[in-house]
Amino acid sequence: MTKLFFIPLLTVLFLFPAQVPTTNVDAFWDEMSRTVAEGEFDEYAALYHEDAVLVNGISGESYPISSALDGWKQGFLDTKAGKMKAGVEFRFSKRMHSETTAHDTGIFNYYSQMEEQEPQLIYVHFQGLLVKKDGEWKLVMEHQESMATEEEWEKLK
């Protein structure tokens, strides 16, 4: 009878391989935060796959990331020039990773503050789909699902 117990257990172990540690994907999100805070537009844009898509659930649109980057570029230039402070932080509710693919779900907190103005904070539910290309993680799809609350953000600590 004990032999029958081990057969299903071994089957489960082979069907569901061990989780790959998230540390290498974590470095991607850390780099995204760094480039926003330092206003490094070209480095930020390079984090996206050349065919990346932004799915904007807030506006109900989907478009190439290049269009989104065009709209975000001035904020990076203002940050780099010291006219604005900006930052983004990520917290995750679900993460699925392999050696070459990753899908992260969570909330990001983006803030910006122009000189002598109050900071603007937003919290957004998001999903990110990444692939490892030439040894580097690239964001293929960013889905900004909906606005989140600070309370939802705090629950993901």
UniProtKB/TrEMBL annotation:
InterPro entries reported in the protein's UniProt record: NTF2-like_dom_sf (IPR032710), SnoaL-like (IPR037401)
One Pfam family matching this protein: SnoaL_3
Record protein name field: Nuclear transport factor 2 family protein
Keyword Signal included in the entry's annotation: yes
Residue ranges of every copy of the SnoaL-like domain listed in the record: 25-147
Signal peptide annotation: 1-20
Cited SUPFAM superfamilies: NTF2-like (SSF54427)
Organism: Gracilimonas sediminicola
Keywords attached to this entry: Signal
Residue ranges the record marks as coiled coil: none
